[in-house]
Amino acid sequence: MLDMHATLAQIPQVVQAVQAHLGMRSLVFLQGDLGSGKTTFVQHFCKGLNAPLATSPTFSLLHTYKTPELCIYHYDFYLKGFEELHALGVLENLEQGGVHFIEWGDLPLLSWLKSCGFSPLILSLERQDEACHYKLMHG
To answer: What is the pTM of this model?
Structure first.
């Protein structure tokens, strides 16, 4: 679907390329090592839509950023298993319209979403010196 290398200054081009694959309700799993640029990507996505500045939702689980046209949801599921997320009711939020960026989503969550009729995308980020390799694919 998408395979790009970009420096920090080129992230807006990556955001535009990713946006071309999104609808009014999209789920995007952000996969990459710690420090690979997952939150940085969401910050640039928000900036491109004049949304508030995105920050890492590590300790709050979810941040929401609203624009006049779209709601952006940014989740951090680090060390959160499917059962815990389900018990907290967080997964029900995924039914809301908008773009849902999920950091640290695992395979059981991905499988469950597919079984519920969602079509999640996976954006993998791999840091390479001064650039990052972005690869977007169907989940």
So the answer is: 0.92
